Amino acid sequence: MRINEFFSSFIKIHILHHCLKEEIYGVWMMEELREHGYKISPGSLYPLLKHLEEKGLIRSRIEQLGKVKRKFYRITPKGKKELTSAKIKLKELIGEILN
Fold first, then answer.
1. Which ranges of the chain would DSSP assign to H, the alpha helix?
2. Pairwise CA distance, residues 31 & 33, whole Å
């Protein structure tokens, strides 16, 4: 499924939020997003993760788990700044919309 630009921003914030709390990996993130009503395919999620990494917002490391290689993602200092900024803007917007 191709995600639209509007929800793409929500998904990026969601990813940064979880990368701040702990290391994540793609399959886990797809399941987490699904719990929040986002149906995102690997063909949409992995390019999004790659884009966030190219922008310097997250970084990855690869770990060999038996026969499986898994890529783990963590937030960077730049990503933390972006997330903090996004939270401020979201709070402002939600306050405006819900009042």
1. 5-21, 26-35, 42-54, 77-98
2. 5
Among 72, 89, 78, smallest CA distance to 55 is for 78
DSSP assignment letter at 36: T
List, for residues 3-36, the tens digit of each pLDDT value: 577 788 889 999 999 999 999 999 999 999 999 9
Neighbours of 57 (CB within 10 A): 23
Q: Tell me, yes or no, if the pTM score tops 0.70.
A: yes
Closest C-alpha to 15, from 63, 69, 67, 60: 60
Token readout for 87 is: 């939270």
- Measuring CA to CA, which residue among 13, 43, 6 is closest to residue 26? 43
> Considering only CA atoms, which of 62, 55, 57 is closest in space to residue 76?
57
Q: What is the pLDDT of residues 68-85, one digit of tens each?
A: 899 999 999 999 999 999
Sign of CA dihedral 29, 34, 38, 42: positive
